[in-house]
Amino acid sequence: MSNTSILIIADDLSGAADCAIAFAGAGRSTAVTLNASRAMGAAQVIAVDTDTRRMPPAEAAHRTCAAWLAQRGLGRRLYKKIDSTLRGNWAAEVAALQPLAGLAIVATAFPATGRTVREGRVFVRGVPLENTETWKLEHAAHCADLNAMVEAAGLRTAALGIDALRGDPAALRDAIAAVAKSGAQALIVDADTDADLRALAQVTASMDEALFWVGSGGLARELASLSDLFDVATQAAQDVPLESQQQSSAILILVGSLSAVSEQQCTMLRERAGVGELIVPPVVLRAGELHLEWAGWQARVGAHLSAHTDLLVRIGRDDLFDPAEGAQLSAALASLVAPFFTHLSGLIATGGETARAMLGTAGIDSLQLLSEIEPGVAVGRPHGNPRLTVVTKAGAFGSEHALYGAYLHLRGTPESAYSESGSTRPSGTTTSSPARETNQRHSGKTS
User: Which residues form the Four-carbon acid sugar kinase nucleotide binding domain (predicted)?
Assistant: First the structure.
């Protein structure tokens, strides 16, 4: 295989980054872009955020195909990144790509984050997906079965069980080739472990049949680990030591996700690092600059960041909240903090819509990926802006430690530097959180 490269198409920015980061970690030049038509030079791995999660299915499918047509080339292989909890229009997007790219190998498991697939059903740390908070928040009363979702989008499916992945590789190759010849358009793959996904990656990467991969960050990691997937090893640019960054500048943590996971991560960050916190009421964000309290909230943000004080800014929650308004709220949140963006040396953004809104508002349309803090938490730098480091994380992803770990990474401060009493803290943090006390009076019900 000559001039092999990978194109990852994702429906949100944090997903694009957490899928592509495995290739950067394997030494491949890797970039993420918000602009599907942008040429990314010599990057071996390009991840495109199509921003289609909230679109009508037909529009999402059209934009996804346009991204592939704009970026495909000789030797370029396709990876359709989907949310491991099946949010968005992924089935419609896969159905649209299939006539262009061949058999869809659908393997959504991500064992490192507790996502597994058995008999075509997704489990999150052993709990059926349809019983989780994430699914109930956005898809209550809808089916969470992979086969049913793909068939409803118009594709003929076949199933591949775990036993096949754990058997003879030659037999696995023959089984997948037979599916391709049978007229099936999508192969739904069960997986419990990284080893299951590794077996799938090793076999499918070397097959001659027309196929593309459909998965979360789990399968991407196993593909990235294959030394012979690319012909020529191109070392990715190395992370610039954090000591060279302007440590007097502020770190902004933006959290648009309302998941319980994000809530726990914010709690640990706030309690261990003493970062000041502002929880902005949705009613303010819905009205934007027209709201009477907009200027006051912007002044609060500015008071922290202009003084180079690290700050956690979150979207609150009220009784009118609708998950479909996430993009609108994220865009307003980005506008709220945008006047102070130049004061930052670091940005941590939780939630793909939040990350995209902030980068777009700041005029940043691509990132060079550098490293990974933990599964699903990617570190990058904007092309043309080496002084800013950006960390992205999906809202419902990561350990309780994820935001705190990302913060320590950007500050270049070992966790051991923090005493239990909170008396030892890095430059740029506050030891008390009067902002949080004030915000709770303004925000009402929060997530």
Answer: 252-403
Mark residue 308 as left, alpha or beta (left: phi above 0; alpha: psi -120 to 50; beta: remaining): left
Domains and CATH numbers, the chain: 5-224 (3.40.50.10840), 247-443 (3.40.980.20)
Residue closest to 15 by CA, chosen among 104, 80, 91: 80
DSSP letter (8 states) at residue 367: E
pLDDT at 421 over 50: no
Distance in angstroms (rounded) separating the CA atoms of residues 104 and 155: 10
- What are 303's two structure tokens? 């008071």
d(CA 407, CA 265) in angstroms, rounded, equals: 11
Residue 376 banded pLDDT, cuts 50, 70, 90: confident
Three-state DSSP class for 373?
Answer: strand
Which residue in this structure is represented by tokens 């001039």? 3
Q: Which tokens in the block code for residue 335? A: 């506008």
3-class secondary structure, 362: coil
Q: Do strands 186-189 and 211-215 pair parallel, antiparallel, or not at all (unpaired)?
A: unpaired
Residue ranges with strand state E in 178-304: 186-189, 211-215, 250-255, 276-280
- Cβ count near 364 (within 10 Å): 20
Which residue's entry shows tokens 């027309």?
210
Strand partners, 312: 253, 277
The C-alpha angle with vertex 328 and arms to 324 and 14, in degrees rounded to 5, equals 80
Calculate Rg over the CA atoms of the chain: 22
At 292-319, the pLDDT tens digits run 999 999 999 999 999 999 999 999 988 8
pTM (two decimals): 0.84
pLDDT single digits (tens) 50-60: 999 989 999 99
User: Residues 256, 260, 266, CA angle at the centre, nearest 5°?
Assistant: 60
Partner residues linked to 378 by β-bridges: 372, 392
